[in-house]
Amino acid sequence: MTHPVILLPQHGGYGFGDVLPVNSILFDLYETLVSFDPRPIRDAREKVANRAGVSPDALRAADQETMPDRMRGRCGDSVEGELAAVLRTAGAADDPDLVAVFREAELGAWRQGAIVHRDVVPYLQELRARGFRLALVSNCSRLTRPLLEDLKLGDRFDSVVLSCEVGCAKPDRAILDLALRGIGGKPDTGIMIDDTEAYVDAARKFGLVGYRIARSQTPPPSSQSVITNLWELDRVLPPQAQTPVQVT
């Protein structure tokens, strides 16, 4: 079956109302599928800062300062290695017991604060039933892998590509290429959903169709390339994936 495609360059090639020849879909994680109540994380870090003998502001600043390196796997290959780097940057003593306390506090706070949006699980299930291949591609630290396991989200995807594990991050096209190759997809039959406009633009330059998700935007956005929930993708996706995807 052939579906009509109308080119709308101002919307990255396609607009709502066009049925896209898609078989592969890439999803961002944070603020796209999962958001956070910041209070548990803030409270946990205050307790860790007090135990470490540094101010909460110093720990917060260290978290932000080290994130670019942690996001690319440059602070070791474990959660403990990453958190040790945060503590050192904050001025705390290099103490394995303190790192262990930080790890348990941080993982517990992430579990408590994580909010999986209501449309995520049912829509991902539906997409896979319709034959689409799904990849998760996230700029993140090593705290993300255990969170995905706790939330049972990783199994919803055919491939999970985390920047901290592959050494590159959006908007680098290398991570998009890794995600697509992991599901046997190609840019011209792929789509990416992300909450960050710069990453959506990078996906479009790579050849994907890109949509930005703005879950908290009220009233609904006027741009045809912005959605407020995942179900809106049905206005552009075909009923079934367009061609079989061969994973090599």
Describe the structure.
There is one protein chain. This protein has 248 residues and is α/β, with parallel strands linked by helices. It folds into two domains: 9-33 and 117-235, Rossmann fold, CATH 3.40.50; 37-114. The protein is built from nine helices and eight strands. It has helices spanning 38-52, 56-71, 79-90, 96-113, 120-129, 144-151, 163-166, 173-182, 197-206; strands at 24-27, 34-36, 114-116, 133-138, 159-162, 190-194, 209-213, 226-227. The strands form two sheets. The protein has a six-stranded parallel sheet with strand order 5-4-1-6-7-8, sandwiched between helices. The longest helix has 18 residues, at 96-113. Mean pLDDT is 90; it is low at 1-16.
Spatial gap, N to C terminus = 26 Å
Number of helices: 9
Report the β-strand fraction as a percent range. 5-15%
Give the ordered list of helices and strands.
EEHHHHEHEHEHHEHEE
Overall CATH class of the largest domain:
Alpha Beta
From the coordinates shown, what is the CATH architecture of the largest domain? Answer: 3-Layer(aba) Sandwich
Unreliable stretches covering 5 or more consecutive residues: 1-16
Biggest sheet: strand arrangement: 5-4-1-6-7-8
Largest sheet: 6 strands, parallel
Share of residues in helices: 40-55%
User: Could you say which overall geometry the principal axes of the C-alpha atoms support?
Assistant: elongated
Overall pLDDT confidence = 90
What value does the Rg take, in angstroms?
A: 19 Å
> How many structural units, i.e. domains?
2
SS elements, strand count:
8
The SS-based structural class is alpha/beta
